Every structure is written in C-alpha cells, then in structure tokens.
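User: Can you predict the 3D structure for this chain?
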Amino acid sequence: MPAKFLLRLLRLLALAAVLLTGLPAAAAESQGGPTELLITYRAQAADRPAFRTYLLGDETALLEGLKRDGVLKGYQILFNPFVTTGTWDAMTVLSFSSYAATQRWKEIERTRPGGLDAAGLKLAKPLQTYSADLGWEATAPDAGPPGKRVVYVIPYSYNALDQYKTYVDGYVIPQVKGWMAEGVLTRYAIYLNRYAVGDPWDSLFIYEYRDLESFGKREETVAKVRGPLREDPTWKHWNDIKATVRSETENTVTEILSPAK
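Assistant: Here is the predicted structure, written as structure tokens:
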C-alpha cells in the first residue's frame, strides 16, 4: 500500500474516532426539529411508592410499544429516590427516531398528559416538557448493568450558545473522558434545550456512574483528572472563566427505572 494512501487512511480513521467519541450523530439532527423530549413529574410523598410502580409497569409498557413501532429510538425513566421539594420526583427521556415521529407523542398527549393515563394522573402530575437536542453522548465499553448505576443530573444556564459549545468541547469533554478512563463514569449525555431561556435550564448534563461506590469517588476522581488538565492551556482558560460562561442550579441524584436490563 502506498505510504501516501496509508497516511490518508490513518487520518480518516483518527477523525472518525474523534467524531464518535466527542460528538454523536444526534448532534447533526439539531439542524432540523428536535428529536429529544424530557418530561419531569411531581408526586405527593404518600403516592411516590405507587407512582414508582406505575412507571415500572404501565408507563414502561407504553414506551416499549412506541419503541417496537419505531416511534422511539430509545427511552429512559429516571426516579429520584429521595423526597425533595426543589427538583422533581421522576423524569422520562424520550429519543424519537425522527422529528416527524414526535407527532405521535402529540397525539398521545391529547388523552395522556405527559404520557400518564388516568391512573397515573392520580399519582403524579407532569411539571415541564422540554424539546432538546442531544449534543454530546458516549458510553463506556464495559458500562455494566444500568440497574446498579447512580445518575447525577445537573442543569445549567449559559450566556451564549456558540461560546457554550466551545466550552463543553474544551473543558467538559476532556474531564468526562478522564472519569470514564478511571472506570467510575459509564455514560454521559448532554442535552441542549432547543428553546433555551435559562428557566430552569439551557443545558442538562446526565452522568451515569457505575454504582454507588463509584459515585462516592466522584470528588476524588474530579480532582485526580483535573490535575494533568491544568497543564493544557485551552482547558485552563475555560477553567479560569467558567463562572462567566454558565451557572448551575440544583442537582438531582436519581436511579434508572427503565430500561434497566
């Protein structure tokens, strides 16, 4: 094989690796209509056990049916294991196969607000629905069972979208790749609110830690990974000015209900 051709092939393979690890195919879809829908719910404390059971049963059955029909590409139901007044009790993350497929959810909403039927609406109420783009996402090869993962959800507001995208590329992604290399983080997904107004979030980070022990190592892992990154001038620049780029609001620690296979 000629050396020139081999060099070109290696460059193409390197570019493909960067694209696969840093920017998912979903990001390209932001040129059209949003294909991600995130819905939050609130339940009374006394209804939380029954609502959790409902999400595992009836709601999962609904979403599984939409996935089989090709309407959904994937979905996730997150549940807050603690009673809280500042955030939410549950959240569904719906990934549609196309923007046109979101029309099916609009039809469902006519009789099932937030995807909940009459029985579900007696247990909880939908809080907010967000149309979003999946901007960055990656999963570790050895992610382990979803049922054991601890999910950390962080909402942010930003000042300017273009600057924020550059900030995520230069500051956030190098860190999360380091956390994955350390074996504590198994997946990350960063969503951009298509209709961003900063209330309550412009971007939403969903970090999935391997298990409770890995989540307990979060702070020490952050410090360990940031050590070498401080020698990178690009990363250091964003670290120095990050407070001017975005602001963070209340975090939520959750568990994965469905699919947890």
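Residues 48-68 form the longest helix (21 residues). The CA atoms of residues 146 and 261 lie 6 Å apart.
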